[in-house]
Design brief:
The chain is an alpha+beta fold. The protein is 54% helix and 13% strand. The chain has a 5-stranded antiparallel β-sheet with strand order 6-5-4-1-7. The relative contact order is 0.13.
């Protein structure tokens, strides 16, 4: 009896500790988010940048954080890093109108006019860019439940209208599953990167003395093929390729932890058109 009481008390103490510790971390996170937003409001963009980066490093990098960080970089005159963070935010918030406007506005400031090519699959599954991975996963999971529910009902009750509902759900289930699979593949194999420096030389090889093939400017989106010894081999949509210092590019999906954590209270800062 006494042993059972001790176990219950121990479990209760542990639960209280975990709950209070989680609450303390949440309060600390909210305070950091508020301070970074306040720094942005008063024009201290470098302090805002450091605040948002601390939140991301601590595992609280939601779409809103990347969006605000992109705004702070843009106002600080760092176009390449602004576009990088906007692109990361768009992975999590693909339909956000303020984000899409700001990203388009930032892209208009870049010097290299390079259009991204679209393949057949990307054109056929045009709606994938409008949904993030979590949304497609839960849509597929919900349709899975509906499909099994209809199949179970049909074991006991067969009717024509139920048959047509089954066909409709089965078709939707197939499309949702295929969409989720493609989105997962594109997200996990995303090799897009952004030029972060004002101007960089793209070389024929991974050495300082190699031939300069062409130059790129900050904000240009390239594809990262591989990295070695501080150098990265990048490729443009038109198949031009060359080597650049790894510190001059930022990988959109792999450069920092991209998570779906969202703030309890967001503070939006849309950029005005200049």
């Amino acid at each position: 009896m006494r042993r059972g009481i001790r176990v219950s008390i121990t479990i209760l103490v542990v639960l209280l500790y975990v709950t209070s510790n989680h609450g303390a971390r949440a309060d600390e996170w909210e305070e950091g988010f508020f301070k970074a937003n306040q720094a942005y409001k008063v024009g201290d963009f470098q302090e805002a940048i450091e605040g948002y980066l601390r939140l991301i490093r601590s595992g609280h990098g939601g779409g809103q954080i990347y969006y605000n960080l992109g705004n702070a970089y843009f106002r600080a005159g760092q176009l390449g890093r602004a576009i990088l963070e906007y692109e990361r935010a768009q992975i999590l918030m693909p339909r956000d109108p303020d984000l899409n406007f700001n990203l388009s506005h930032a892209r208009d400031q870049t010097r290299d006019a390079i259009e991204e090519s679209r393949g057949f699959i990307e054109t056929a599954f045009f709606w994938l860019k409008s949904f993030n991975l979590n949304e497609l996963f839960w849509s597929f999971a919900l349709l899975n439940l509906l499909l099994w529910a209809i199949l179970i009902i049909r074991l006991f009750h067969k009717s024509e209208w139920l048959y047509y509902i089954l066909l409709l759900i089965l078709s939707s289930w197939f499309v949702a599953g295929l969409s989720f699979g493609l989105k997962y593949y594109w997200t996990s194999s995303d090799d897009r990167a952004v030029i972060l420096q004002k101007e960089v030389d793209i070389l024929a090889g991974p050495e300082e003395k190699d031939t300069v093939l062409f130059r790129l400017h900050e904000g240009t989106v390239v594809y990262l093929e591989r990295s070695e010894d501080g150098w990265s081999l990048v490729r443009l949509p038109d198949r031009k390729r060359g080597w650049v210092k790894s510190r001059a590019v930022g990988l959109i999906s792999g450069g920092s932890p991209v998570t779906s954590t969202s703030p309890h209270s967001s503070h939006r800062q849309p950029l005005p058109v200049q």
